[in-house]
Every structure is written in C-alpha cells, then in structure tokens.
C-alpha cells in the first residue's frame, strides 16, 4: 500500500550487489546504461563511493554512485526501481550520500542530468542544487543536452537547513544504516 512505511536499509554497495544494481540500471536507462563491468571497476576505484537501498529481505531497490575528488562529489549514476519510485527512497539515498560528504569534508556536489528528466531535476532542486550550465549533445543515444547542476557549499547554513528539513520529513520509509 502506498502509505505503508517501508523499511529500507542503506549500506555500501558490494560486488555481490552488482547484478541487482545492473538490473535497476537497465530498467532506468535501457540500452544507454552502465554495464556490470563498469560497476565492478567503480567498486575497485578508491575515489568512488556507492550506496544501495535494500528492503529488509535484501531486495535491492535503488542505488547512488559518486566520485569524491578533493572538495567535490560528483553523482555519476543514480536510479530507483520503478516500483519503488515516489516513496522517498531517492531522498533517503541522497541524504545518506550527503552524510558521507560531511564526514569526508566534501564541500560541493555536482552532476549532469538530461534536460528531459524533469523528476530528477526537481529532486536535485529540492536539495538546493542549481543549473550552472549546459553540456551540448552530451548523451550519445540522442544527442540530448545535459544540465550541469551544482550545490552551494554544503557546510553553509542554507544548504544544511534544506538538507535537515528533507531528512526530518522523510516519512514514507523507515531508514537504517549499515
């Protein structure tokens, strides 16, 4: 039922998660997705940080992958299984990722997003991210432009207030961290 509170566990991705992550990636991005080999490589990259959201039965329902480089975190890939979208899991994953940024003293978050991906743009804007430019013909499948989005310094009071408000108002999921 839509109003039921889901129990979600957010933890670091392992190589055992890659097949399920790859299925969600395929569901979200079709033929223009990352393949399993890319995820295995990312897990071996010391600059990468990947988190997964699972149900308490272990079923994987979403993931976020980022690169942490100096003072900047770049969201490289991010998807939620269609069945579990609009249940605040994406918000919970971003909050968990922001917690890592605080711990690692990362100041800024950036990403590229398809111009046509209005739900994702709205989600990022909810976290205070703004468009700082366009990458023309960025996506190879259809030459769609990418919007470059950037946060302000996450240690500033304005970002912290937005982040804390979102984190405190996630009410559709019961989150635990491993």
Please give the structural blueprint:
Layout: E1 6-12, H1 18-29, H2 36-44, E2 48-55, E3 60-69, E4 72-80, H3 89-103, E5 108-114, H4 118-126, E6 130-135, E7 146-150, H5 157-168, E8 173-177
Parallel strand pairs: 1-8, 4-5
Antiparallel strand pairs: 1-2, 2-3, 3-4, 5-7, 6-7
Can you tell me about this structure?
The longest helix is centred in the middle third of the chain and has 15 residues, at 89-103. This protein has an 8-stranded mixed beta sheet, with helices on both faces. Helix 3 (89-103) links the parallel strand 4 (72-80) and strand 5. The protein has 5 helices and 8 strands. It has one domain (6-177): 3-Layer(aba) Sandwich (Aminopeptidase), CATH 3.40.630. It has helices at 18-29, 36-44, 89-103, 118-126, 157-168, and strands spanning 6-12, 48-55, 60-69, 72-80, 108-114, 130-135, 146-150, 173-177. The chain has 178 residues and is an alpha+beta fold.
Instruction: Look at the structure and give the mean pLDDT.
Output: 92
Name the CATH class: Alpha Beta
Tell me the β content.
25-35%
| Strand line-up in the sheet with most strands | 6-7-5-4-3-2-1-8
Features:
32% helix; 178 residues; eight-stranded mixed β-sheet; Aminopeptidase; alpha+beta
Could you provide a short overview of the structure?
By secondary structure, the protein is of the alpha+beta class. It is built from five helices and eight strands; from the N terminus they run βααβββαβαββαβ. Helix content is 32%, strand content 32%.
